[in-house]
């Protein structure tokens, strides 16, 4: 643990970004027992009656054995799924009777907020393999919800403004709203955040609203819900803007390992896969990127384990917060991932995630195929092909609906349509038809108004999307897409059902 | 999960205590996806393309096997410690190939903030066995630091006052201070919080300071650091005061299961043990007690698992907070405790904790014996016998020190002494002597002044204590107590070392 933390001291001069910290961080005192703990670390010869930890001989757990998939084959996920109970496995053991009981004892004892040394070595090895950020440091987390909300708490308090995609996975902005953060939506297209829209907001910020936004929350790969992935060009441009306007980038990247080739590629193989993208972390010369990774999508969400990568100054405040709140993650998942990476090796891990992305790619292509067959021919909906993640963002061509109309009372003010009402009708029609699919309105970032460019289309009128996942089973997808096709057809054909006569409400 | 949560609806009329909630709780919105999830629960026949969860066939974990201590014997902890590698064990298995793969799958998947249904059943069974609170409900936590800080965040914001023992385990008050809570110390004696001191503070509260304190943080058994345990009479009185002055009692009870008989009892046996104490929870007719339990002391702290028991209205807000922050605990420790209670049975669990308390009782008596032999004869320090917990609170008889004096410049203002300086010297002398032991000053509750009764002795002058733990090994205790005896003797004998001449600083 000590050398991991101490490595921080060797980091190069990152920018001093402590002015981004919330007041709560700055007034948080350190644990008064910390001096005692420090004395104990620095003087291991002392007889200590200081620590109130249960004695390890009293832990009733002798051994934990994990039977996990083997990653020895070229396409281990495929073997794991197709061979069922006879798929090759590997045993990983944490035991007090083993040659080295250190990991077992450490995983069962109290620890330091930064995480178990073995787990930190594991995620540091992953960072070194997939990113270029040798001077950033890792902190273990309870998965991305925990990591994101802790980082938001660290950076934002009442009156602060944060930026995010105009369609965003809702719980995260809501968590920050509760402690007073306000959200500013950035216009997106099929490639994600539009850099010049980001710059427009920052350049034209009206200081009468308050302090200019200082945090950008971004999901660069397979964004939830839109499935978009930022190109390297956009990433670079966004990073430059962040430097110019002094933003912290919170890079939430749970789908980083789930990258897909275009559907046209024949005979997918691990050899021909496109490279993993360049993360904001790898671009981060200033130390203004706080990257958030998770084991949820590549291992299992129930582990509740992930990690934050940041410049050391942010880590220091994060760890102090962790020590005074959730404390470090459970020793079991931390031990498991470190045993797993030891057992598989980095090469095995790489085979697993490349094989996993092939599996999800097959699912994506399966859903796309169904969409092409069952929905697209009607001409009432279309999709972009997601290059990462778990979601298909289905655009509904509402303008073809017989009852699509501009709401008369809204003509003056931006010319709003009845898109929102029609999408709600469509959502309900899907339910009646037997299909649950998520309407875009659920993902609209909660905000004040007035951030849009003059005369731009209202977000409600651009919420003509449905989010469908390809993470589920093929049976579910095969059952769902025909329903969507049928419901769309009926919904667009019949102008009479639940008719909203917009013109009748003219003032 | 559903029936556990639904059970809340059957609860009797608890008092409506929502006015205790912090503003952040009241403005926290619910997850906008929740409606979608609800529709999915209520309509299981729907084909769902809504959930972005990784498919369970992709989790690379086939089986987790825990080899744990057997609890079949009368004194299982003793067997576990003395028999070493040949101690009887029991295998607990979570597996996707088992007869019922439900627990395994649930432990690896996303879940609900309240916790895994199996883990909730487990802790509810423990609550029912050891407390009388059939209408309170349980919520899984990441251990007591997580639980306490979440509850403090739920109840306290800037300008709120909370009450606690004047000597308290420091990190918890510090966590609440960071979000603006101020602490008010309650005078204690060897029996813990003095009820009439609690009432004095509330009855005489000066409203110019702000709102009267509305939360009492209490550690009723084996309090850390003083080792005190509240008698049933005091508990009842404190509960009445809480009703009269509308307090929420946060009952932090990690040492509940570590109860000890007086040292005189010959031939300790599980038969003659005193009963477990009546918790504040069991007295709670109003729903104003939020009880916090942990598996850290009875299983292992590295599990990071515990539970909160509260009235359903508080649970609802807690769970919403959990869903928007740390999320539910890792599935591994949750699966383990539910498998363990199934495997051991409630009777086995009871044997384990009764055997564990005997083990700690032996350690306590061992440390007491050492104290009597190595320290007490000098007449320079004394102890009360702790009835619970892990700590011995050693009173140092500073008034016998040749340099003990009233500080001349302080005579007017309460007659303060040089106790603080002498205790610091003693702490440093212990370190030089080779012993790390924690001085009381580290545990002084951080507060403003002016809560004390007129003319009462300043906290610094009552901080003449050292905290020693008996949770460690007998070797450590055997090495430590002679050092303490020797250092005390030398420190009290030699008036010249590092002399502070208080009189020379007279103004």
TrEMBL record, chains A, B:
One of its GO terms (molecular function) is transaminase activity. Its cofactor is pyridoxal 5'-phosphate. InterPro entries: Aminotransferase_I/II_large, Class-I_PLP-dep_aminotransf, PyrdxlP-dep_Trfase, PyrdxlP-dep_Trfase_major. The keyword Transferase applies. One of its GO terms (biological process) is alpha-amino acid metabolic process. It comes from the Eukaryota. The keyword 4Fe-4S does not apply. Belongs to the class-I pyridoxal-phosphate-dependent aminotransferase family. This is L-tyrosine:2-oxoglutarate aminotransferase. It comes from Polyporus arcularius HHB13444.
